[in-house]
């Protein structure tokens, strides 16, 4: 009696479409979950080629079995949205149109490329107009600029505003209040304030992953710093012309050791900085 052959990754071309109804993708470290028909909704696109003409076992998968695509995980959300309903909807003040157009070209979506072209042209036109207006303003005010002191660092020309940084910490305090407290390191320094000011002060050390779509003139309380040294944050604020105007801190006892009677306290501290 002939034994049935064991299933393997080698299938005929008729079996290549045997993908699950719900497909999980890992795009540049970002996980997306969508329906199989969405991925093959644009004939001739790269995703259509991957999920209709290739064997599932021939595609790269991560350690959790998700199909891996080595592209920009943040921008892929707009690619996937387009493939769902053939429309392009971007947030206000979206600064990544050029990069998104490059992603559309990579995924072989010519209609999406066409939709992005007018937006890119408009951005370039606005940028050129701003440059021209800046030159005219500079020419108009050149006499005033020449009268500035040679020792002026230019900080007076920067925008005024407030930036608040906060952190949660913990420390252990013994029964004897005179005993030195044992502090633990700061886990994360949060940043609150206007987006443009936060980026100006902290630059590449600012982690924007929790609030990536905010335009420059909006406010956020979800950014945090990639380092955890308060003194480093203070130095950056001082270099940008900010000075501290207020601070506050709260502490709460969270747990007590039964054997030592030591108490573990948690605290939240905020520092408010201002540039006039």
Automatic annotation (TrEMBL):
Keyword Membrane: yes
Main location: membrane
Gene3D superfamilies according to UniProt: Potassium Channel Kv1.1, Chain A (3.30.710.10)
InterPro entries, A to Z: BTB/POZ_dom, H1_KCTD8_12_16, SKP1/BTB/POZ_sf, T1-type_BTB
One matching Pfam family: H1_KCTD8_12_16
CDD domains xrefs: BTB_POZ_KCTD8-like (cd18367)
Subcellular location: Postsynaptic cell membrane; Presynaptic cell membrane
Keywords, comma-separated and alphabetical: Cell membrane, Cell projection, Membrane, Phosphoprotein, Postsynaptic cell membrane, Synapse
Superkingdom: Eukaryota
GO annotations of cellular component type: postsynaptic membrane; presynaptic membrane; receptor complex
GO biological process assignments: protein homooligomerization; regulation of G protein-coupled receptor signaling pathway
Protein known as: BTB domain-containing protein
Species this protein is from: Myotis lucifugus
Organismal lineage: Eukaryota, Metazoa, Chordata, Craniata, Vertebrata
Gene name linked to the record: LOC102425569
């Amino acid at each position: 009696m002939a034994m049935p052959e064991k299933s393997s990754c080698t299938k005929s071309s008729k079996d290549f479409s045997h993908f699950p109804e719900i497909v999980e993708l890992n795009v540049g470290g970002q996980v997306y979950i969508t329906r199989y028909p969405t991925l093959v909704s644009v004939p001739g696109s790269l995703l259509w080629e991957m999920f209709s003409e290739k064997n599932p076992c021939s595609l790269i998968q991560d350690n959790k079995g998700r199909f891996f695509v080595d592209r920009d995980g943040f921008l892929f959300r707009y690619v996937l949205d387009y493939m769902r309903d053939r429309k392009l909807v971007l947030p206000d003040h979206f600064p990544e149109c050029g990069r998104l157009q490059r992603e559309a070209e990579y995924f072989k979506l010519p209609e999406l490329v066409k939709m992005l072209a007018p937006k890119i042209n408009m951005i370039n036109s606005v940028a050129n107009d701003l440059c021209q207006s800046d030159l005219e303003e500079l020419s108009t005010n050149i006499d005033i600029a020449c009268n500035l002191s040679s020792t002026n660092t230019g900080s007076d020309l920067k925008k005024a505003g407030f930036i608040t940084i906060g952190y949660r910490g913990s420390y252990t305090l013994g029964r004897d209040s005179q005993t030195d407290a044992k502090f633990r390191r700061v886990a994360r320094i949060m940043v609150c304030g206007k987006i443009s000011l936060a980026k100006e002060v902290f630059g590449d050390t600012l982690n924007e992953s929790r609030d990536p779509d905010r335009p420059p003139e909006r406010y956020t309380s979800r950014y945090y710093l990639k380092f955890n040294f308060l003194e480093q944050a203070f130095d950056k604020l001082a270099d940008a012309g900010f000075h501290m105007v207020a601070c506050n801190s709260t502490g709460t006892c969270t747990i007590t050791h039964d054997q030592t009677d030591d108490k573990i306290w948690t605290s939240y501290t905020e520092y408010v900085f201002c540039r006039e």
